[in-house]
Amino acid sequence: MKKDIYVVGAVIYDKEWILCAQRGQTKTLPLKWEFPGGKIEAGETPEDALQREIREEMKCGISIEDRIEETTHEYDFGIVHLTTFYCRLTGEEPRLTEHRTIKWVHKENLYELDWAPADIPAIHKITQ
Ligand SMILES: Nc1nc2c([nH]c(=O)n2[C@H]2C[C@H](O)[C@@H](COP(=O)(O)OP(=O)(O)OP(=O)(O)O)O2)c(=O)[nH]1
User: Fold this and answer.
1) Where do the domains of the chain lie, and which CATH numbers do they carry?
2) pLDDT in tens, 19-55
C-alpha cells in the first residue's frame, strides 16, 4: 500500500502576485513548481507546520489566512494530501535556500508554470 503524506503549502500573495517555488533537479517531482511548505510532523497542526517550513525554507515569517483547498493526489512514491492556505509575509524578505528558484508570478500567469499535479485544484481556485 502506498504511504499517505500530509503536506501544507503556503500561497503567499501580495495584491495580485503569488510567490511560486521550483523544486530542485534531484528531488522527487524534479523542477516542478509548488507552493513553499512541506510535510506535517507528528503533533503539529497544519498551521504550525506551515510556519515552521516557511521559516526553515525561506527564513521568513508568514501570517496564515483562509484555507484554499484540500486535495489528494496519488504519485508513484505515495499519496499526497495537500492543504493550501493564503498567507502574507510579515516583513522579512524570503530567501532562497532549498528551492531552485522562487519568483513572484501574476495570478493570470500561473498556468504558464509546470506545477506539481497535486497543486492544480488550488491553482484553479486562486485564478477563478
Ligand atoms: N511543499 C510542497 N510540496 C508539494 C506540493 N505539491 C506536491 O505535490 N508536493 C509534494 C512534494 C513532496 O513529495 C511532498 C512535500 O514534501 P517536502 O516538501 O517536505 O519534502 P521534500 O521536498 O524534501 O520531499 P521528498 O524529496 O522527501 O519527497 O509533497 C506543494 O505545493 N508544496
Assistant:
1) 4-127 (3.90.79.10)
2) 999 999 999 999 999 999 999 999 999 999 999 999 9
CA nearest to 98, candidates 25, 18, 8, 9: 25
Amino acid at 33: W
State the cell numbers at 34. Answer: 509548488
Cα 49 to ligand 1 centre (Å) = 13
Q: Give me ligand 1 centre to Cα 38, in Å.
A: 5
Residue 104 in grid coordinates? 513572484
- Here the cell at position 33 is 513548481
Closest residue by Cα to atom 24, ligand 1, is 28
Pick the atom of ligand 1 nearest to 37's CA. Answer: 1
Grid coordinates in use for 52?
515552521
